[in-house]
Design goal:
single chain; 154 residues; alpha+beta; two-stranded antiparallel ribbon; two-stranded parallel ribbon; 5 helices; globular
Length: 154
């Protein structure tokens, strides 16, 4: 029986809680390392915690059309941040809810696998099951009860 030292599951989700990208790394890998590969085809804004602060990563993503938004560390200088970005940073708890759904509803947290293959099958099945959940954690930022636009008149 081999030894298992742990892993990290890196996730990128959208505002509706849908999985956009994921990557599995050993537990000793820096959180910032898989970000460039995971975000290859993304544009817009990427919100992360303080573990993703890196000027090099910010510049690399910004050149590709992706803005990395994080909270500042206590020893960092204050910087101007748009109000909408501050509000959305406070909504980062959605990713923790997604992790909770994956662990508890989709049962990806299981410590008694007898093989690496069994572990990977369980993980992939849990991720697939999550994508089919009818209710996912989301930001719910779209306006409701707006009348549909009238049809165009030619």
């Amino acid at each position: 029986m081999g030894w298992h030292f742990g892993f990290k599951l890196h996730l990128i989700i959208n505002d509706r809680g849908e999985l956009l990208a994921f990557q599995l790394t050993p537990a000793n890998v820096d959180d910032r390392e898989p970000v460039p590969d995971m975000t290859k085809d993304l544009i817009g804004k990427l919100f992360g915690d303080r573990g993703y602060i890196s000027q090099k990563l910010f510049e690399e993503l910004y050149e590709r059309g992706l803005q990395l938004v994080t909270k500042s560390k206590k020893n960092m200088k204050n910087r101007l941040v748009k109000m909408i970005d501050k509000i959305l940073l406070r909504k980062r708890a959605v990713i923790e809810s997604v992790n909770d759904h994956l662990k508890n509803l989709c049962q990806i947290e299981h410590s008694r696998h007898r093989s690496v293959f069994n572990f990977l099958v369980n993980l992939m099945a849990g991720l697939a099951a999550y994508t089919y959940l009818p209710q996912k954690p989301s930001l719910d930022i779209y306006p409701k009860d707006l009348p549909a636009l009238p049809p165009a008149v030619f």
